[in-house]
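REQUEST ID: PR-0412
SUBMITTED BY: lab tech R.K.
PRIORITY: routine
TASK: structure prediction, single protein chain
INPUT:
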Amino acid sequence: MTTGPEHPIRVRLEEVLADVWVLDGEIIEPLSLEPAIHNIEETIEVYKRIEADDSYSTEDDR
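STATUS: complete
OUTPUT:
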């Protein structure tokens, strides 16, 4: 599985996260994109865990 830092989906998630942070600062105070930010951050963390698990299992296969 290719889930490294350069994987297109992970790169796009990082770009979207940056855009959402910018938008969160531009909307009126009672509204917040914090739930969306949290979801994107969790998704990126899952990609990182998958990458770590994949590299660990690849080392076991050797």
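NOTES: The first helix runs from residue 8 to 26.
REVIEWED BY: pending
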